[in-house]
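Re: the multi-chain job from yesterday

Posting the exact lines I submitted so nobody has to dig through the queue logs.
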Amino acid sequence: MQHPDRLHLQAYFDGEVDAVAAAGIEQHMQQCGQCRSVVQDFDSTRTALRERLSDYRASDTLRAKLSGALDREPRSPSTFASGNPTLAGDTARARWLGWQFWIGGLTGGGLGAAAAALFAFMIWIPRSDPVAGDLLSAHMRSLMSAHSIDVLSTDRHTVKPWFAGHADVSPEVADFEAQGYKLIGGRADYLEHQRAAVTVYQHGAHTVDVFSWAAGARALPKDVTLDGYHLACWTARDLDYCAVSDTGWDELHGLERLLQDLSARDTP
Amino acid sequence: MPHLDAAYRFARWLARTAEDADDLVQDAILRAYRGFDGLRGSNVKAWLLTIVRNCHATSIRQRLRVSTTPLPDEDEAQDGYALVAEGPGPEGATLQADERRSLDLVMQSLPHEYREILILREIEDMDYRQIAQVTGVPMGTVMSRLARARAALKKLWLQQHEDSARAAP
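And the result, structure tokens for all chains:
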């Protein structure tokens, strides 16, 4: 393999290349001290910044000033009320959690609906769903390590039987290259106290992990976004599925539809 | 919610003084609240930092127009001298503080675009797409700028280490 160029190495270091490309670079680096040291340089820059740079935090004075300023704002601004359908449902929860949680340890006296609305706006990404958190962690772990694919194959007739020996479930697997979702392989992961199957697709520059496990352990989240990653979950034929990626929603739902159609077709 | 601290950190590295950063964050939060800048994309932190950045750009433009107060660049130079001119403190506890300060100084001496992209990537842990959103440049520019910023930081950092090694008896 030729030396990957600097930007490519950097993209690898930043976790911006897909699993296959990452595996290629890792393989190359095993023999190439030059590329290894480039990546080590990136790493020492990052470590220095994260460990030694002054960490600035918003002062209590600023927090107090902010809460005062927001309190003076007219209530229920129209953009917030009408702009986002997810807001309404979250308002009750936001009220319950309270604005001071966001601002951090203030007494929330006099902070009414307006603050709650902003709070809802800032947290309408539900960060706390444990299933979603586990799935995202599994996805990130696979992207960070060399362990992204156990069985590297674009052939469903290779991937599906592989799951039979390595996972507790046998999910829908198909190559949707024509539709833009290229099957690149599968791996096993441990999730919900069972050996879950992970089918790995490539969509453009993005890797999509489709996790599947026996349904019913915990309630599945609906579509959620965590740390910039989208998670689309569904249940089909006694299996829970969750597709995780940093692609857009449309792309993720596209793959979900294809797999759902496949399950529907296979149902007798 | 970590976003307020993220907004503040980013503001602090853009504005450089604590007072300016306070004003900037307050500006940005109110703007976000009033919905002047509708949420684009799904990442709230990236969206909030975009607003912080826009507010900063606006305040710089206004300052240039209406007043003759020294620009942040000049402030930075003075801060830099003040910090460098300070004598060495007792060994031990201050050593770490010195190191921290010296990396701060290196960061402050970097061009604005480099400083900003390093904060977004290394401190805020944003991916290229989010950085492109916040800084308003294409992904390709994000990648090349980030590479240049890392190289510049490393060079200055090594230089400073050499300087301090020479200065030491």
